[in-house]
TrEMBL record, chain A:
Name of the molecule in the record: ADP-ribosylation factor-like protein 2
InterPro entries reported in the protein's UniProt record: ARL2/3 (IPR044612), Small_GTP-bd (IPR005225), Small_GTPase_ARF/SAR (IPR006689)
UniProt keyword Metal-binding, yes or no: yes
UniProt xrefs under PANTHER family: ADP-RIBOSYLATION FACTOR-LIKE PROTEIN 2-RELATED (PTHR45697)
Keywords: GTP-binding, Lipoprotein, Magnesium, Metal-binding, Myristate, Nucleotide-binding
Residues that bind Mg(2+): 30, 47
A Pfam family matched in the record: Arf
GO molecular function annotation: GTP binding; GTPase activity; metal ion binding
Residues binding GTP, per UniProt: 23-30, 69, 125-128
Family stated for the protein in its record: Belongs to the small GTPase superfamily. Arf family.
TrEMBL record, chain B:
Name this polypeptide is given: C-CAP/cofactor C-like domain-containing protein
Molecular function GO labels: tubulin binding
Positions of the UniProt region annotated as Disordered: 132-163
Record GO cellular component, one term: cytoplasm
PANTHER family referenced in this protein's UniProt entry, alphabetically: TUBULIN FOLDING COFACTOR C, TUBULIN-SPECIFIC CHAPERONE C
Coiled-coil stretches noted in the UniProt entry, renumbered to this chain: none
Tagged with keyword Chaperone: yes
SMART domains xref list: CARP (SM00673)
Alphabetized Pfam families for the sequence: TBCC, TBCC_N
Amino acid sequence: MGLLSIIRKIKRKEKEMRILMVGLDNSGKTTIVLKINGEDTSVISPTLGFNIKTIKYHKYSLNIWDVGGQKTIRSYWRNYFEQTDGLVWVVDSSDIRRLDDCRAELHNLLKEERLAGSSLLVFANKQDIQGALKPSEIAKDLIGRTTADASQWPMLVID
Amino acid sequence: MEPEPDHTKAAAAAGAGNRKHLAMLERLSKRAVILSPDSNSSDASPVTTFLSCFAAAKLAAESALSACRSSPEDAPSSLATAAAAIDDLDRLVAEASHSLPPYELRSALAAVSDLRAAHRLAASDLRPKKSFSFRNKSKAPNKPPQDPPTLPPPPPEQPKPNVQVILPGFGFRGRKDTTLLKDLRVSDEKDGDFTLTDLVSCEVHLKGKWRALYVHKLKDCRVFVGAVFGSVLIENVEHCTFVMAAHQIRIHEVRATDFYLRARSRPIIEDCSGVRFAPHALKYKGIEDDLRDAGLEEETGNWANVDDFKWLRAVQSPNWCLIPEEERLQTIEISDVQDREDDK
């Protein structure tokens, strides 16, 4: 259908990207988004539901979906998977006790078919905390244990 | 009868552009087809004809889609039927697009794209897309056949390291019946992250400005904390009392515990019962400076604005309440509390 394909082409030119921020509660997702956007981070309540920020970057328009990470609302993450271009998995590098939870939740996500084809970024947050795990340790723990996943998901760690 | 096309309008449009002129010609030729004697719907307008054909094809597509949902074993054939029906719809819309009023055209296009989306969804449920993976294109085809494509055996589950061993440096853990004191202002550690784990019947005093606090597995304890300018995470606690000021407070799996809080943001509870809240009430020499430096000098009243993630309704959660004023502790003075044992 001619009209539809024209509309699709126009949409593609706009270069809209949908970025989904997820991770356990207390990992700092909302803080990261507000920081990137240059907003005040002094009063942030634990996210109940989600926030959306649109950030312009060169010719891209990034729609960042920051979704709450509390255990009760993790089951709603799936509602945001459709048409996600990039997935940012935020880790509290100092919360070693809950690293098992963190790994289990991430692997649940990686099984999700609707996320196949989107890129994964693991954000090793809270590196400034003494005793925090190094990015390489986080990578090994979260991804390294299942070699199959490691080869499927390109990964970049920011200090 | 066939309604006459608006000739004046059509003429104006044709004047406006060659494309519209062509459209008009096409519309006229279509009218000729409809008016031809072998057409059995010559008394209906093209719009009505289109709408009835469209509705029939749409019904076929929808029933095929619902069939593949109801009987998964026949799903592949139902999917193919649905795809064919949707293609029919596309063709119908394309053919009729010149004679359709804008509204009908728009709604028809929307219906088709909805069906396409539903079909895509059903198809992806049925045969999941292959996950993205890097492939080595230069892989020689003459390689000896690999063993059956089983996944490599999962690495043996590593014995879980003892949590106490791997927790970050600072903290009190595994203590019983004692008073624990840490004053960040006199210690040489500039970092202010602290962990309290596995404490029973302890009294804990943390003075100074803390960056983050992790609390896990406490029973029958009293915990007094100066100012936390980051977040506090409290899990698995029962029969305790906390007095603290912090920017962010998360409380998980806590039973029968009182919190005297000052918080910049709304405290949250999850999987808790019998937790009660009251305003911050702590004094020690210099606490005003700690609170001010941590941005916590102002009483926001958020100690009473608790969000219960297990009770997302307008009515009050049964899991928490405010401490009645007559039951509240007096302001607690901890200036002179000494370590009961040498901790360092």
